[in-house]
Amino acid sequence: MAVTVTERGKMGKERLTKELEKAVFNWYLGGDDASLEPVFNCLREGLANEMEVLVPFAVPDGQEIKQLEDDVYALGEGTQVNFMHIDEGDRFIVPVFTSVAEMRKGENIAVTPIQLAVLLDIFQNRNECNGLVINPWGKNFLLSKKIQEMLEAYIPQSRIQVLQNGVLNVHADAIVNAANSSLLGGGGVDGAIHRAAGKALLEECRKLGGCETGEAKITGAYDIKSADYIIHTVGPVYSGKDEDAKQLASCYIKSLDLALANGCRSIAFPGISTGVYGYPLDEAADVSLDAIAAWLGSHPDVVMNIYLCCFKKDEYESYMRLLSEEE
Ligand code: AR6
Q1: Which of 154, 176, 211, 253 is most buried, most CB within 10 Å of its CB?
Q2: What share of the chain is helix, strand, coil (3-state, %, to 5)?
């Protein structure tokens, strides 16, 4: 994939809304254990960076409005329109969409792009409005007035979320592959990622010249639509020597470095080395949490949503035990 780092690193408005879609998706995936903080990170960053949402409206008779694309219109200054709303007793909520694709999951309706911050301002002082519902057809998120208040006080920061799911089920800018040094595929999560991404991934991997243990390399995600990049890292084959932990920690740190260098705001890790390579789960969980904490400590200004994906139940239990001991 011939793309330069600067191009990959761009964070346009569109990327911000996509990031929000991913965080909301993962919040649903996390079920009862899910934390809202990754969603808050996206919303806060979005509000500060002119993130736009699409608001459905009734096309007014006799007024000239500019069509941007099918069903999407730009409203000129002074245009009078009625936003659509969903009645909730004597109050209402306003539906908004993060993208045309989200809007098309339901009926096609006319929408107009508006900055989320501007929209919140419009409705803040209207008592009859309960808030906004983002993407009402699918995995929606109710941005109620109460949540808006919490958001105002929220300070964005990197977050670690442990999920009882494989990396291929999580939506993230980058998913990490527990590869081998050939980078040409294998079993476990490596095999699953190559099968899901398709042959083009193998083509790109062939050009990378392999990867040393403890190092990481990045590629496109091809047919894996839930991610933009795959970061391939090679964990150590467990031997019980001190070197194992250093190499495993390095896998996490180098993967985070690559994610950051490529403009990612979210990354999903499998339990590197804990399958075929035989790293004991508790030890691996300990090393990974320490490595991520060290990386976060040296990147205090970075906001990264980090998902630790537990394909097996006992991986999840290892993380939960460790995290409860830390509290
Ligand atoms: N989907 C998601 N996660 C999975 C899947 C899957 N289908 N299968 C396993 N995991 P492993 P390693 C999780 O064995 O120990 C390969 O052949 C698993 O629960 O895939 O680093 C490579 O080519 C665990 O959390 O990788 C190498 O030769 C994590 O993925 C070797 O295995 C890693 O388990 C690497 O061994």
Answers
A1: 176
A2: 40, 20, 40
Residue 271 Cα to ligand 1 midpoint, Å, equals: 8
Structure tokens at 234: 């090679």
What percentage of the chain reaches a pLDDT higher than 90?
A: 75
Rg (CA), the chain: 22
What is the predicted pLDDT for the residue at 154? 94
Asked if residues 65 and 175 have their Cβ atoms less than 8 Å apart, the reply is no
What are the C-alpha distances in Å from 51 to residues 1, 68, 89, 149, 311?
Answer: 28, 18, 30, 18, 34
Say if ligand 1 is within 6 A of residue 280 CB. no
pLDDT under 50: residue ranges of the chain: 1-11
Nearest CA to ligand 1 atom 24: 271
State the pLDDT at residue 13: 67
Whole-number pLDDT of residue 62: 75
275 lines ligand 1 (CB under 6 A): yes
